[in-house]
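**Paired protein data**
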Amino acid sequence: MKATIKTAKGEMEVSFFEKDASKTVENFVKLSEQGFYNGLTFHRVIPDFVIQGGCPQGTGVGGPGYSIDCELDGDNQYHDRGVLSMAHAGKDTGGSQFFICHSRMQTQHLDRVHTVFGKVVNGLEVIDQIQQGDRIEEIVIQK
């Protein structure tokens, strides 16, 4: 299963790690299909670190109204360039916020702390173009 994250700066095609993070993928797909992410911003952009989106308030404190458990035991739980991972405020508190890594250099400490559930396989250059406040136009799921 894949997804396309559409932005004004371009599209990022994501391949999911369903084997390693099935519940996190299921949650992201459900929210995407409901249109939850449409129009939300990348509210946190830190160069050479991450771009983060998925907060309905645009502040980094909002979510879908529920939390999901972390899935940290899979083989692909390493934060590298293009990795899609679940943001949270502590173990098992994620919901809708996600981030995409700029590089491995600044993200190693996130390994097995945040659930990695996919990776950008096309459109890596878009990650570097996203600025704080840029919007997610739509996330389209391909099953």
The domain at 2-142 is CATH 2.40.100.10 (Cyclophilin). The helical segments are 22-33, 124-129. The radius of gyration is 13 Å.
